[in-house]
Amino acid sequence: MTLARGYAALAAKEQLVPFSFERRAPRADDVAIDIKFCGVCHSDIHQARDEWGGATFPMVPGHEIAGVVTAVGAGVTRFKVGDHVGVGCFVDSCTTCGTRHVDLEQYMPGLVQTYNSVEADGVTPTFGGYSDHIVVKEGYVLSIPDNLPLDKAAPLLCAGITLYSPLNHWKAGPGKKVAIIGLGGLGHMGVKIAHAMGAEVTVLSQSLSKQEDGLRFGAASYYATSEKETFKKLAGQFDLIINTVGAAIDWNDYIRLLKIDGAMTLVGVPDAATPPVNAFNLIGARRTLAGSMIGSIKETQEMLDFCGKHNITADIELIDIKAINEAFERVVKSDVRYRFVIDMKSVAA
Ligand code: NAP
Ligand code: ZN
Predict the structure, then answer these.
(1) pLDDT class of 348 with cuts at 50, 70, 90
(2) Residue 271 CA, closest ligand 1 atom number
(3) 69 and 187 belong to one structural domain
(4) CA pair distance 132, 22, nearest whole angstrom
């Protein structure tokens, strides 16, 4: 056992505070990782504040982990001390039901999340990346390409894969018009990745205040959803829309922007009930309303290699861990360009 230092929420809606806890000694199939950086995902806030229900405390959030291998178990073959690695939203999964073979393990009930979960033994709580080190089974550790700086690569472990997976599934690429709703942590990764895949990308943001950035990330056009005119002008235009908004917007407005056979995929989790979907908006053009959650380990590695090849990382604001509560408040106000990343050196300071 080793003592880990981090920050935790001790109860829902309380400020995060310094917190020490034990990590297991590496087993034969484990990799021990010195956490250098951890991204701050909006899901960390939803869970630390128990907005989705079922949260367990103390909770050490953090599932956008980037670090360096410090030790490996005797049976580990894919990693060695010094390697740049990442850990995303889960650290174990059901191994008996066969989903590992189809690489959809993120959708199975046996999933063990990186935090706010219990290990396969059913009792040991998992603690996430707002901490100085972590011990993870080899099969759930990702390789971060050497050309990507670890601080800017950390958000790929959740924001990156959450957008890569639906873009990949719905075949974003040359000749496809893709819209991304919300230019936040997830959204800005979506613009960069969809652009690199060759799609024509449009940002649908609440205002034009981040337009310059959106175009720099690779968007061909940028519209304010506060303008009624936007919805008239863009009707029937898109093959794929990815909705990253964590608030209850009216999906009908956006479904009508899809072409015949177009699809809108939800990745954002609304914090309140959304207005009912009018069936005619789907039926009238054989449209699909879909959802998507992170990605498998195989697809996450594929995404990291894709980002390495195209030199894609997040635009970040690096913070001291002591600023985490202020960072949470700023994320809630959509006041972040475009992901907070904790510099884990600060946990010891
Ligand atoms: P974020 O950085 O806060 O970005 C969300 C963006 O949504 C904001 O930047 C803002 O963009 C827009 N927005 C916020 N409030 C809005 C409102 N009331 N109406 C319209 N637009 C609004 O959050 P994130 O980390 O990207 O996460 C987004 C959501 O995805 C969260 O619900 C999170 O829990 C969820 N999530 C899902 C998965 C998955 O696997 N499906 C994975 C990670 C996160 P503009 O300023 O451009 O309008
Ligand atoms: Zn996340």
Answers:
(1) confident
(2) 32
(3) no
(4) 11
Dig out the tokens for 40 from the structure. 């701050």
Four-residue CA torsion sign, 280, 283, 286, 288? positive
Give residue 187's domain range. 159-291
Bridge partners (DSSP) of residue 136 are: 31
Split into its structural domains, the chain has a count of 2
Q: What is the pLDDT of residue 13?
A: 84
The ligand minimizing its distance to the Cα of 268 is: 1
- Residues 134/23, Cβ–Cβ less than 8 Å: yes
Q: Are residues 149 and 167 in the same domain?
A: no
Return the ligand number nearest the Cα of 267.
1
- Token look-up 């089974």 returns 137
DSSP letters, 266-281, are E-S--SSPPPPPPHHH
Distances in Å between the Cα of 209 and the Cα atoms of 122, 131, 230, 318, 340 are: 47, 34, 15, 22, 19
Are residue 107 and residue 164 in the same domain, yes or no? no
Residues 286, 325 within the same domain = no
For residue 265, give the CATH number of its domain: 3.40.50.720
145 and 14 assigned to the same domain: yes
Ligand 1, atom 9, lies closest to the CA of 184
Query: What are the phi and psi torsion angles at 343 (to 5°)?
Result: -85, 110
Instruction: Give yes or no for residue 145 having a pLDDT over 90.
Output: yes
